[in-house]
Amino acid sequence: MTTMMERPTPTSGDAPKVGIIRHLNVFTAFAVGALTAIIVWRLSLALLPADSESAPLFTREDKITLLSMIGWFVGFMTGIGALVAPFRWVMGKDLSHDENMFLAGKDMGTKRYFRYTTDHKVVGIQYLVITMVIFGIGGILAMLIRANLGTPEGGWIHPQAYNSIVGTHGIIMIVGTIIMVTGPFGNYIMPIMIGARDMAFPRLNALSFWLIVAAAIPLIWGQFIGGISTGWSAYNPLAGQAPLGMNGYIMFICIFALSTMVAGANITTTVVRMRAKGMTWNRTPIFIYGVVASVALALPAFPVFFLSQVMSGMDRALGTSFYDTARGGSGWLYENLFWIMGHPEVYVILIPAVAALMEMAPVFTRRPLFSFNVAVMGIAGICGLSVLVWAHHMYISGWAPLLNAPFMLTTELISIPTGMLFLVLIGTLWRGRLWMTVPTMSIFALLWNFMIGGVTGIYLSDVPADAFLHGSMYVTAHFHYTLMGAGLTGALAALVYWFPKMTGRMLDKKLSWISFWLVQIGFNVAFIGMFLVGLQGQPRRVEAYAAIFNKGNLVTSIGAATIMTGMLVLLAAVIGSWRSGVKAPMNPWQAKSLEWTVPNPVPLENFETLPVVTEDVYGYGRKN
After folding, report:
1. What is the largest CA-CA distance in the chain?
2. Nearest CA-CA partner of 309 in 369, 231, 264, 248
3. What is the average pLDDT score of the chain?
4. What is the C-alpha separation between 495 and 480, in angstroms, rounded?
5. I need a labelling partner for 127 at 20 to 30 A (CA). Which of 26, 263, 431, 609 fits?
6. pTM of the model
7. What pLDDT shows up at residue 264?
């Protein structure tokens, strides 16, 4: 039996009283952030003493830059309204009912998307838009890279600018792939899928999104003061010698890490505490397991990355020596801290995308998910082993060579739980009544792409083979097959699948098919070409290369242009369908999970009466 959740109601018919919150939005956030940064910059110039002759290079300039970026961050979060509720709490008060309804975006129309809005559905749409923006910028940078590699001599872009483009492309695409599933669909779909009215901590939900927006400006700022010249991993002590733009990277990572920690705690609490009555763990959709596993990996991993950047900033601005070997530090310290985050991060990206496809597989085969328990064990096995493989990135560094064999073993063992997820997808497809949609074909594409990514990864897990392949374009091709070929394929399928529920419109069928084939064909052409030049010996992150690699690079550039064309077609489909597409029915796929039981548009609190779950969501083909 379920009951309606009681809600306080205003005691009078007066207009809602929402105070300063009414005046805060993204425009005030940028204005206050910029003003605060300028004030802090001027004060720092006036008050900070000049460096002594023995001080490390750039120390004063680094202090001024970092303080100004911190000022931007505090000002932006103040201007968007993130600090209103904490300030009220410190003063011993709380937000009124009217203020909470205003924060939820009640009756605000499109304005709510430009504010600090706590409704999980608004946050999901905000994440979807910012993910598309991130991929758009990353794609443009990728095409600049391919344009510079159009001839062996390179030279179209200045080497310093080229290095910065490569590093910036890498880090923003990593961030984009981290949030591409858990951001839009983990926020919009997940609470409805578990039968909840909202996230456990709605204000933290809004905070996780606006932290990402706040993080973007220091990274852009950094491009004008030297950029990221070290590659996306920003290895120290090299990063300690980089231009002032490296401070933008440090701030970007620190703020983004805060976003992932906040989002991870919120998602985990929501799933553990707010599932509908009767939704036992055996009845919880597999997509929920994927999202929770992703944030469970991120929660311990990203604080380590955060701390690595804090120490990097201290080395640059305060003259400490965490990574300076000349003064007792260690570059290996940074490598360990980075890769303790950097390899679980691969599965933070991959697991929710694969789980989304496992969620769709029963819908488009009209049969139950093949061995739900095996799927859960596969996800758990990947999570457990993924925290024990980080040092395979460090075989060639000389750190702890006696540990190479154990890390080689754990890396190769991770193929077992990964194979379990493959078996679940193949078992679900086997003898199913296939409905050939873009999500269905995306399952086949994932199996193909991730098979290539996995098999090529086995060679990199082997110490002797890695000694030959390390630092080559082969490595770049491998992780693109994993993160893009598998992860992004799952995310694009999720977009097609849940677009009707998120927008109330069907995604243009013809354009989505054209986009699918352009992206998949272009992707395989591009990165098979990159495998070939990598096996021939072309190194990564080079601005020019030997003429022997010319044909392989031409093939890669053609494939990259095809990918970009496909993504532009998809963008046209999203914009056109969102504005004037065919109106979607409540359940266009005839699926059984709870998000398809609510009307379009989804009400503010999702469910008028909280649902009771009596069976799992994969009962296709079963007799009643």
Report:
1. 83
2. 248
3. 92
4. 20
5. 609
6. 0.94
7. 95
